[in-house]
# Entry
Amino acid sequence: MRDGLSSYGAETALPGQLLTRSWKRSSKLLRDNMDYLRILSGKELPLPIYSGVIACLENPLAFPDLLEPIYREAMKLDDDTLDKFRFSLMRLQLHADIHRNEDLEKAMHIKYVAQVLEKVVFGSLVMEHEEPFAD
# Structure
């Protein structure tokens, strides 16, 4: 590993390619972040609690550590803002279902985060899938 860059393909990159790869990676991260904020906000103004949710979506390993702070922040919200927050979590679940075939692992993570947050904050899921009756 030369200067810590080999994990990014620096050893095989031609001049200018490393910068392009780095820009593309940061551009994708920014685009994903903007998409998460758009999905969470819907047609409303963003809520401050969304920053914690976005952090969980971007880094699965941080989710366990961020769960309690998000819960505590949600418990301070008034009823109208809590409703907006719940609908934002439902929008995430719908987005994950709609885009499941594009990136299954990412869709599963988005849905998992949204469902766990909804269950922890609200006690149940609005869009819970029911099992078919077995005869």
